[in-house]
């Protein structure tokens, strides 16, 4: 958009929305109707990442005095800035949730600087002191749920070979792969996880090929970290392998093959955010939590999960919900033999070092580049 | 072998399996486009046709419970889109490439719009024939679970080759593609020939789409095609407008698509982006090797707007 030649009409609309935003957005009581904008990178009923956020948005729609607007299939480019602009200037949105990883920097940061009175909440970004104060990032420690899924997978696998269909080697994905593997090793110290990167968040044909290749290698339990796990779940189930899900509960797709899964719990979090704003508090810029804080959850166990697996998984889950439990506890070696966490070091969930993860732990077959 | 551990054999097996599994949409779209382009018109809209075909096949299969009705619906949708393309192109001074691009956007957009409620439900799938019964190795059996559509495509390629060469309508299509004036002089309507050729092309591309949603990967979602339709159109040029070469090229592209994941599964992990790009590198290489500044592409129909 050429801002040098912005029309007067746009300017007026923008000005009006800004005033509205300033008046209604961060003021304690939501006198008028508040508009909240959700932006998804894919389709919101994809049995995956976007559906999890859409379930959160649906929870907000039920609350009085809120208007939720949504836009799907917005690419991680300048397009998302245009979408935010139009949600702000045309719909009067005062709280925005650009939910995809690549929206954060530079796009959302740019918008947050441009509209300092509005609130921007990003899923997965790494907010730091340098970033605008009206921007925030939240994320769930879904690796806790992956760890538990790993335990279940480790007990269920007969070959001891697990498979992971992943999109890109970014820290959050690597952390899931590592947690899943560490969990599996609790159940079976010899378990390995073979990882295949497809290169992008939604590549159905590649995901199906990756699933088939893994099963050809003798993998009998698979999981994934892509936007829509449907392809992996259905194709693995057709080949007779077990799966643990991701993002949302995929058991309706493959009731017999579905063991358990790591799910987001945005429908619990988003209403909390809105309540914070309504009570005049500000949302912490850096918001994180796991099973205990109800940001993530574990799917109910499938019928193929053994008694022993259930018992062990429940035991660890109780620790997460109780006093806490550390997944990344030294000594941990990466799969090249280097020590990445020294003996005696405990990297708790909130440790920012974990959000920069760039290694795969021992037991993972694969490489980050 | 008994424990199913086949080690490095996974790679050739996956490439073979991939060639069979992934190639079918390429094959149908490229054969369809081959008919259309031989008649002297380029339909770039087949990407949209493919996606529309995938969506309508999934929808009809879900509603009626019969995947074969879905395949038929996909073909008819494709023929309809082909008729639209040919209809617009029959108007004077209309550029077929531009119409194709707009139909590509129209087809994908319409499919995403109508396909919204189809993302969640699971539709009945096309059956597969088990050609791997002779083998004890589960991986071989899995690779040889072949869909009937693939076999149809494989049979269709030589039939088309033969038809172009020896039948009357094959000659008519080629005449319309090589010299519209000659076809007119013979008393045939070039527009009618091209309409039928584009509809036939659309029909095949639609069926290619039904394979995507009803067999492999086997469900409807918006990332389903990820450019396979447009790759297949390019593949026709690569195959020099020859149906048999279309078949080999589709198999090569299918196999190349399986290479990246297969190599990673046996532990060749570096440069997976490069392996994922293998089909495109292959295209570029062959284009560079076979290009010549002295002549136009051999086998290109003379009436095509890119060669004229």
Report on the structure:
The complex is a heterodimer of chains A (369) and B (308). Chain A has 369 residues and is an alpha/beta fold. Chain A is 37% helix and 21% strand. Chain A has ten helices and 17 strands. In chain A, the strands form four sheets. Chain A has a seven-stranded mixed sheet, with helices on both faces. In chain A, strands 2-1-3-4-5-11 form a six-stranded parallel sheet, with helices on both faces. In chain A, α2 (49-61) packs across α9 (266-278), α5 runs parallel beside α6 (171-187) and α7 (204-216) packs parallel to α8. Chain A is globular. The model of chain A is unreliable at 19-31 (pLDDT under 50). Chain B has one domain (7-290): ABC transporter involved in vitamin B12 uptake, BtuC (Orthogonal Bundle). Chain B has 13 helices and two strands; from the N terminus they run ααααβαβαααααααα. Chain B has a two-stranded antiparallel ribbon. Chain B is globular and about 60 Å long. The mean pLDDT of chain B is 88. At the A-B interface, β7, α7 and α8 of A face α1, α5, α11 and α12 of B. Chain B: The chain crosses the membrane at residues 6-32, 44-63, 69-90, 97-115, 142-164, 197-217, 246-266, 272-291.
Q: Assign an overall shape of chain A.
A: globular
**What fold name goes in the CATH topology slot of the largest domain in chain A?**
Rossmann fold
In CATH, the homologous superfamily of the largest domain in chain A goes by the name: Response regulator
Q: Low-confidence segments of chain B, ≥5 residues, pLDDT <50?
A: none
Secondary structure: helix percent of chain A: 25-40%
CATH architecture of chain B: Orthogonal Bundle
Strand content of chain B: under 5%
Instruction: Supply the number of helical segments of chain A.
Output: 10
Roughly what percent helix of chain B?
Answer: 55-70%
Radius of gyration of chain A: 21 Å
Q: Would you identify the regions of chain A where 5 or more consecutive residues have pLDDT less than 50?
A: 19-31
Q: How many β-strand stretches of chain B?
A: 2
The overall pLDDT average of chain B reads 88
């Amino acid at each position: 958009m050429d801002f040098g030649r912005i029309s007067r009409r746009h300017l007026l609309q923008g000005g009006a929305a800004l005033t509205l935003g300033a008046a209604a957005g961060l003021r304690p009581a939501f006198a008028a109707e508040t508009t909240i904008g959700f932006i998804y990178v894919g389709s919101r009923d994809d049995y995956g990442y976007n559906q999890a956020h859409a379930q959160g948005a649906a929870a907000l729609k039920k609350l009085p005095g809120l208007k939720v607007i949504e836009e799907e299939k917005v690419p991680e480019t300048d397009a998302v800035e245009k979408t935010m602009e139009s949600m702000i200037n045309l719909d009067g949105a005062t709280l925005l949730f650009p939910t995809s990883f690549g929206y954060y920097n530079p796009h959302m940061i740019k918008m947050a600087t441009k509209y300092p009175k509005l609130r921007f909440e990003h899923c997965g970004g790494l907010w730091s002191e340098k970033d605008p104060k009206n921007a925030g990032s939240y994320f769930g420690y879904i690796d806790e749920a992956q760890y538990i899924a790993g335990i279940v997978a480790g007990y269920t696998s007969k070959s001891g070979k697990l498979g992971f269909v992943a999109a890109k080697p970014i820290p959050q994905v690597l952390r899931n792969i590592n947690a899943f593997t560490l969990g599996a090793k609790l159940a079976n110290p010899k378990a390995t996880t073979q990882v295949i990167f497809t290169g992008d968040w939604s590549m159905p044909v590649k995901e199906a090929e990756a699933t088939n290749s893994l099963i050809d290698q003798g993998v009998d339990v698979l999981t994934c970290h892509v936007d829509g796990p449907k392809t992996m779940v259905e194709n693995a189930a057709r080949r007779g392998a077990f799966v643990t899900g991701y993002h949302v509960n995929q058991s309706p797709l493959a009731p017999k093959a579905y063991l358990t899964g790591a799910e987001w719990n945005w429908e619990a979090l988003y209403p909390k955010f809105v309540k914070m704003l309504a009570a005049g508090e500000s949302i912490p810029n850096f918001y994180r939590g796991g099973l205990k804080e109800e940001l993530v959850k574990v799917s109910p166990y499938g019928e193929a999960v053994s008694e022993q697996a259930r018992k062990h998984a429940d035991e660890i889950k109780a620790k997460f919900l109780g006093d806490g439990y550390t997944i990344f506890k030294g000594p941990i070696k990466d799969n090249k033999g280097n020590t990445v966490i020294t003996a005696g070091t405990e990297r708790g969930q909130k440790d920012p070092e974990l959000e920069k993860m760039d290694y795969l732990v021992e037991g993972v077959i694969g490489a980050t580049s | 072998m008994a424990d199913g551990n086949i080690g490095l054999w996974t790679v050739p097996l996956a490439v073979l399996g991939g060639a069979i599994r992934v190639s079918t949409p390429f094959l149908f779209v490229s054969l369809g486009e081959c008919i259309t382009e031989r008649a002297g018109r380029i339909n770039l809209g087949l990407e949209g046709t493919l996606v529309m075909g995938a969506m309508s096949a999934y929808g009809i299969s879900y509603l009626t419970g019969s995947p074969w009705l879905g395949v038929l619906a996909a073909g008819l949708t494709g023929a309809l889109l082909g008729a639209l393309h040919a209809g617009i192109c029959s108007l004077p001074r209309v550029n077929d490439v531009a119409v194709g691009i707009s139909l590509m956007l129209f087809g994908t957009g319409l499919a995403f719009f109508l396909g919204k409620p189809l993302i969640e439900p699971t539709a009945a799938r096309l059956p597969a024939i088990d050609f791997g019964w002779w083998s004890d190795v589960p991986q071989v059996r899995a690779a040889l679970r072949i869909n009937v559509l693939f076999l149809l495509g494989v049979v269709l390629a030589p039939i088309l080759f033969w038809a172009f060469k020896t039948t009357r309508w094959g000659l008519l299509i080629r005449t319309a593609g090589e010299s519209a004036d000659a076809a007119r002089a013979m008393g045939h309507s070039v527009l009618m020939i091209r309409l039928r050729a584009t509809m036939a092309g659309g029909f095949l591309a639609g069926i290619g789409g039904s394979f995507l949603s009803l067999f492999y990967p086997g469900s409807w979602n918006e990332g389903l095609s990820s450019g396979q339709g447009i790759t297949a159109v390019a593949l026709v040029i690569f195959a020099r407008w020859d149906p048999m070469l279309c078949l080999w090229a589709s198999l090569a592209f299918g196999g190349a698509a399986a290479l990246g994941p297969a190599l990673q599964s046996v532990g060749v992990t570096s440069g997976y982006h490069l392996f994922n790009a293998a089909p495109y590198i292959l295209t570029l290489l062959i284009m560079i090797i076979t290009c010549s500044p002295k002549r136009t592409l051999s086998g290109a129909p003379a009436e095509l707007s890119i060669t004229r």
